Amino acid sequence: MTKPIRGHILVARIEALMRRYHSIKQVKQATINDAHGIVINSDTQTAYYQQKPISLTQSEFEILQVLIEYSGQTVSREHCCQVARGIEYSPNNRSIDMRVSSLRKKLIQAEVFGAAIKTVRNQGYKLVGSQA
User: Fold this and answer.
1) pLDDT tens-digit series, residues 50-71
2) Which residue among 62, 73, 103, 126 is buried most deeply as judged by most CB within 10 Å?
């Protein structure tokens, strides 16, 4: 916009921007994924099991989200590291293993018996249904 600007032109531009913003906001809906009874909402970054909330940290939520997206498939440590930390995976860095361990404990605390995180040796992790 060039200066000087008339008041009614400024108001019209602001109203047009607000209309566009609200139409985009209405089109965008919450992304909800679920697997084995665990439901996650990526917009609010919340996780539930049988309508009960699961308390997760940001990185635990991101790892769980990836595992749910690839439910039943092996997700490599490299991919988990890239998603949760945004850095290159290093075989000497065990932080992803610690985060997955913490995520497993929180799933047990939340009494999530319909799903389990399985370690696939030399490959990564997999979210599977459990027989409990």
Assistant:
1) 888 999 988 889 899 999 988 8
2) 103
Q: Can you tell me the distance from the alpha carbon of 121 to that of 126, in angstroms, rounded to the nearest whole number?
A: 11
Q: How far apart are CA 71 and CA 127, in angstroms?
A: 5
Q: What is the pLDDT of residues 89-113, one digit of tens each?
A: 676 777 888 889 999 999 999 898 8
Query: Residue 26 — pLDDT band, cuts 50, 70, 90?
Result: low
| Residue in the structure block whose two tokens are 């108001």 | 11
Please give the model's pTM, rounded to 2 decimal places.
Answer: 0.69
Angle subtended by helix axes 58-69 and 95-109, to nearest 10 = 80
Q: Model confidence over 107-126: pLDDT tens digits?
A: 999 898 888 999 999 889 99
State whether residue 83 is helix, strand or coil: helix
Query: Amino acid letter at 119?
Result: T
Report CA torsion sign: 59, 43, 107, 65: negative
**Tokens 């916009």 belong to which residue?**
1
Q: Which distant-in-sequence residues (6+ apart) come within 8 Å of 91 by Cβ?
A: none
